[in-house]
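Model: Ready when you are.
Researcher: Fold this.
Model:
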Amino acid sequence: MSKHHARFVLAAAAAALTVATGATAALAATTWTVSPGGKVAARTTKVTFTDPTTGSALTCGNDTVTGTLKSGSRLSGTGIGSVTAVSIQGCTGPLAIVLLVKAADLPWHLSLTSYNAETGVATGTISGIKITWAGPACTAVINGTGGVHSGVVKVSYPNRTGRLKLLTAGGNLHFAKVTGCAGLVNTGDPVTISAAYPVTPKQRITSP
């Protein structure tokens, strides 16, 4: 065997090993362990809805979320949890606009997609999101780009802090059916939600 051919064979073997190792890691990330699981509650004193196009923001002073998480090991990340009830209160926007904000089309669904073993942080999405705004000067619907039941927001959960965080990047939320609102938000504008919820009881979520 020539030296050139030997180098080619070694390089091919290394590439194959790299692919195999990557496949194993990806496969491991498809199963999850959750403890204790079961019924969970989360409450935060600040939720911010922002329209990046206009720069307008609506801040709510109290948001309580309840739901469930599957418990055990070798769990699929798809539909591993659900949001069954949401109570959002104390919402005020620019120009002192006061709005009644309600979650719709519950339950929403939590799915996990990746896990960083070094930081102990799980990431995923909450899907099926629909939120309505109602007030004398402004009404709107927050939904996904695909319409009904298509709203998605990306989330992260660090085991160290036990706080579920809604991320402002990676989602598809947009405003629809906007009426009034003084141009602060408009139909078709994207919307982000920023919040961090301490989860009770505190969960440990790992993969594999």
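Researcher: Now this one.
Model:
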Amino acid sequence: MTARLAAHPNIEIVRERVDVLPASGATIVATGPLTAIKLAESIGAATGADALAFFDAIAPIVHRDSIDMDVAWMAARWDKGGKDYVNCPMTKDQYLAFRQGLLDGDKTEFKEWEKDTPYFEGCMPIEVMAERGEDTLRYGPMKPVGLDDPKTGRWPYAVVQLRQDNALGTLWNMVGFQTKLKHGEQVRLFRTIPGLEKAEFARLGGLHRNTFINSPQLLDSTLRLRSAPHIRFAGQITGCEGYVESAAIGLLAGRFAAAELSGEALAPPPLTTALGALLGHITGGAEAASYQPMNVNFGLFPPIEGRARKADRKRLYTERAKAALEAWLGSVPPHAIVGRGTRRSLVEG
């Protein structure tokens, strides 16, 4: 790919450090996951300090239809603000066993370049909280106060809460459960939580250094920065997780930019496709207040209409996506594919 880009007559590759976002000219910023500090400061100034994160504190995401609602129930603390959370109750014995599992679980070590990055309270791993004392979790993310279990009429000894993570309501975030536990250990341990025995995870927890923006708040449907539309963001800095996902968002950013420079209109791919579902999540489908990086998964797609057996859903999602993508590709302007006559610079930040 490097050789093909270097040989392309319409592409100039400039290898230099960029410290400041350009004030004008069509620009795509694709500097994640470890953006240099000066450029990060410039991005922070353009987006707002609260909209730029330097540390991923990723809590697991559960598919809503895999939660056992015969055990869990919907409620907000003290019944205020509507039934905003799924609540999974624990007895004392269940809580103590769960805490011990956190302490004993196999954990991923920090990479060398992460080791000196200090924790802050907003992204404290749940196993670190468990180490602080037997009741630390019960006074933190697993606090049962103000949550009456409708089956007992009393507060549980502890509770695990899940909060809606996308506009469709198909994905729910385990509140405060960012962790360095290895993925297999997470699945095993989190399925001991009452109501999550058969949980299917769209994403598992993690904690690592990263730089990403609050895209649902900042970007329009074609990845332009609302406050400076000449700038687009692409790749991991938008809050997508994974190489394939980052490349896909980069591809879309390039096509949107090429179409715009050619005076063409390019509609985003349908939400029923993998490209459209991921783009839609990044640019507004996710909850901005709790936004964290996400891989593409079927939980981002609009649900299949009508009733379908669980075993058939992935096939139905895939067939629908293929048809929708084929139709969308037929509508893509030629300039959005090859960018004829447009000279670009690829700048490494």
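Researcher: Key takeaway?
Model: Confidence is low (pLDDT under 50) at residues 338-349.
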